[in-house]
Amino acid sequence: MNVLPGIILIFIVTLIVGVFFHIWKGGGLFRLILFLTFSLIGFLIGQWIGSALQSTFLLVGWVQVGMGLIFSIVVCVIGIWLSNIKIDKKVEK
User: Fold this and answer.
1) Residue 63, SS3 per DSSP
2) For residue 64, what are the β-bridge partners?
3) Are 67 and 46 contacting, i.e. CB atoms less than 8 angstroms apart?
4) Whether 67 contacts 50, CB under 8 Å
5) How far apart are CA 27 and CA 92, in angstroms?
6) Which residues pair with 60 in a beta bridge?
7) I need a surface site. Which of 48, 60, 83, 85 has the fewest CB within 10 A?
8) What is the DSSP letter of 64?
9) How far is residue 42's CA from residue 71's CA, in Å, rounded to a whole number?
């Protein structure tokens, strides 16, 4: 089994999802890296779950593109939600 094309496919899909979320929500370089990291983590979780369930939803070779894409989007949305939490400090006078 040739692993390199699958790894390249994983990185291409995660880059597309991460860049899409960065364009949608905006931000600087740190936020782009954050979205790319969330996307990769989500895809790897989806790959693991898809392999464990023996899913054939958008299966390309050994890469679970369907499950990876779904979990990549979900983790990015959760990451956006968590990164927007503001903690306000009350200033007493």
Assistant:
1) strand
2) 59
3) yes
4) yes
5) 32
6) 63
7) 85
8) E
9) 5
Chain centroid, CA 63 distance in Å:
15
The answer to whether 79 and 35 are in contact (CB under 8 A) is: yes
- 27: its two tokens: 């931000």
Handedness of CA 47, 49, 55, 58 (dihedral sign): negative
Tokens 């070779």, residue? 61
Q: H or E segment at 42?
A: helix 29-53
> Distance of alpha carbon 10 from its chain centroid, rounded?
10
Q: Which among 73, 20, 6 has a CA at the least distance from the CA of 46?
A: 73
Two tokens at 55? 């899913």
* Chain position carrying tokens 């991460």: 18
| Token duo for residue 23 | 């364009």
